[in-house]
């Protein structure tokens, strides 16, 4: 009997407050599904990494998302609203109903710390999805210890332990390490996918694009195995 092939490792840099990151997550999931369905023994292993798009954002931003976008990009509010309308339509195409009217813009560093806490307890993927949903779909605050602890509790994390870790900034060094790695890789926008440590894919690409990259990596692995066997 031969050992099952190792899953393809996917390292993803993203931010909770990034609309394209949630869209990209859905599109990647679609691509990974296409890849997995094309043959036996195929799988992916996903690890998320921290990236702050706007680290100077206050915890409680005064104003709506169009106001923030106008200030951040130096455009008028009408242009900002048009951008939000466009991304809302694209999000809807992958089943995400963004609610910008109720979205609470906030600083995301604590959310990243919470994701690292969840990773340490085997629930990183669940926490990432929970926070994105809370932020973009449910109008919930994701920038305070109490709010993040409550959201963590919803996926089975110990709320008191999570709150204590956030109060002590226990996982802030891990956040900073992710950010430093992004700098070393030259990542200046998210989402950014590093596939099997070999290929970088930037942005919310189509599911078929992700499937093609995964297929290429899988084929190259097979070729490498054949080369080693014939050596």
* Rg calculated over all Cα atoms: 19 Å
Total strand segments: 4
Structure classification: alpha+beta
Helix content: 40-55%
Mean pLDDT: 94
> Which strand order spans the largest sheet, edge to edge or round the barrel?
2-1-3-4
Q: Could you state the order of secondary-structure elements as H and E?
A: EHEHHHHHHHEEH
From the spread of the alpha carbons, the general shape counts as: globular
- Terminal Cα span: 21 Å
Q: Return residue spans where pLDDT drops below 50 for at least 5 consecutive residues.
A: 225-231
Summarize the main sheet. 4 strands, mixed
The fraction of residues in strands falls at 5-15%
Helix count from the secondary structure assignment: 9
């Amino acid at each position: 009997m031969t050992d099952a092939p190792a899953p393809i490792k996917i390292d993803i840099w993203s931010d909770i407050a990034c609309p394209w990151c949630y869209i990209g997550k859905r599109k990647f999931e679609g691509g990974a599904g296409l890849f997995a369905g094309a043959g036996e023994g195929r799988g992916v292993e996903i690890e998320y990494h921290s990236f702050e798009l706007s680290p100077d954002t206050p915890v409680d931003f005064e104003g709506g998302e169009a106001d923030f976008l106008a200030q951040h990009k130096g455009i008028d509010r009408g242009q900002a609203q048009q951008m939000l309308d466009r991304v809302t339509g694209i999000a809807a195409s992958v089943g995400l109903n963004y609610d910008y009217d109720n979205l609470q813009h906030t600083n995301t560093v604590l959310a990243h710390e919470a994701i690292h806490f969840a990773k340490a307890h085997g629930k990183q993927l669940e926490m990432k999805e929970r926070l994105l949903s809370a932020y973009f779909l449910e109008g919930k605050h994701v920038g305070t210890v109490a709010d993040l602890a409550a959201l963590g509790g919803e996926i089975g994390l110990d709320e008191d332990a999570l709150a204590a870790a956030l109060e002590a900034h226990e996982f802030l060094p891990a956040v900073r390490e992710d950010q430093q790695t992004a700098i070393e890789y030259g990542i200046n926008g998210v989402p950014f996918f590093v596939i099997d440590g070999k290929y970088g894919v930037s942005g919310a690409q189509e599911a078929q694009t992700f499937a093609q990259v995964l297929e290429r990596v899988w084929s190259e692995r097979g070729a490498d195995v054949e080369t080693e066997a014939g050596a």
